[in-house]
Every structure is written in C-alpha cells, then in structure tokens.
C-alpha cells in the first residue's frame, strides 16, 4: 500500500493555469501520537518540497522518483515562484505540526546546513494552539532529522555530536 497519494488539479478560470498538488498521507492514522517509522514522513516531505521547488518544472515528482539513492537533498533558495504549502489534519494540530516543523527543519538544513529544533518548535507553537504537544512528537522530530541526514548522506554521524 502506498504511504501517500498525490493528485494534481488545474484551475483554468483565468488566463493563467495554476497547478495544485494535493497529497493525502495514509501512513499516520488519527489518534496515533507518532508513527513507528520515520521513513514515510521523510518520503512525503521530500516529495512535497521537491514538487514545490521552482527549479523542478518537469512535473516528474511522483513518489517513484523520490528515494534516498536518487535524491541528494539539495534545493534552490526559496523564490517568489514557490507556491505556499497548505497543511491540515483532522485534529488541526497534532500531525500537521509535526509535518510543518519537520519540513521547516529540512529546508533549514538544506539552506543553512544547520537546524534549530527549539526555535522551529517555538515558532510553530506560536502560530497555532495545540501544536507539538507531546514529548513523543519532539522525539519523532529528532529521529526524523537523524534518519533524513543518514538517508541523504548529509553528515557523518560519527563526526557529529547530536
């Protein structure tokens, strides 16, 4: 079974068409604090950020093209041609907050080659109530970051203090 589903829609009411990519994440059911594995969230985050990267105009961003061996984790700097990303879950905060925080940390890692989990969590929590409420969610964020860096060969964990 796929971990997420993606569909694309075009709005042709104006002279310009705007592509909307919708992702539905199946691997993290409502009521589960965090998934056991980080892989599904890493795969989804890679797909969303890659599809939203303005340098990727080939529309070849399906899940079959996202994996650790093919993708080096590098993106261009954000630009005005990047589209906003809308995220929601049934509860409005639990799963959304982890995805938003993780995606922000991945972008920070790609652009600055460092992450600040505390400030990212603090900012996320300042934007909406019920964001990042449990220790398990923070632990999952750290596990996702470690697995992301390992998967994309971003740093050598033996040389890095975590």
TrEMBL record:
Protein name per the record: Uncharacterized protein
Source domain of life: Eukaryota
Domain Tyrosine-protein phosphatase: 1-148
Pfam families: Y_phosphatase (PF00102)
PANTHER family with a match to the protein in the record: RECEPTOR-TYPE TYROSINE-PROTEIN PHOSPHATASE, TYROSINE-PROTEIN PHOSPHATASE 69D
GO biological process: neuron development
UniProt xrefs under SUPFAM superfamilies: (Phosphotyrosine protein) phosphatases II
Residue ranges occupied by any Tyrosine specific protein phosphatases domain in the UniProt entry: 80-139
MF term (GO), any: protein tyrosine phosphatase activity
């Amino acid at each position: 079974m796929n971990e997420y589903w993606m569909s694309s829609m075009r709005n042709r009411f104006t002279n310009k068409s705007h592509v909307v990519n919708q992702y539905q994440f199946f691997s993290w059911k409502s009521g589960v604090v965090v998934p056991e594995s980080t892989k599904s969230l890493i795969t989804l985050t890679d797909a969303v950020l890659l599809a939203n990267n303005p340098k990727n105009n080939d529309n070849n961003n399906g899940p079959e093209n996202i994996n650790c061996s093919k993708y080096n984790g590098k993106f261009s700097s954000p630009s005005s041609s990047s589209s906003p990303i809308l995220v929601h879950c049934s509860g409005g905060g639990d799963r959304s907050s982890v995805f938003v925080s993780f995606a922000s940390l991945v972008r920070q890692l790609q652009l600055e080659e460092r992450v600040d989990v505390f400030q990212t969590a603090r900012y996320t929590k300042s934007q909406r109530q019920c964001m990042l409420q449990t220790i398990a969610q923070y632990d999952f964020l750290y596990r996702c970051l470690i697995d992301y860096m390992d998967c994309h060969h971003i740093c050598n964990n033996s040389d890095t203090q975590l």
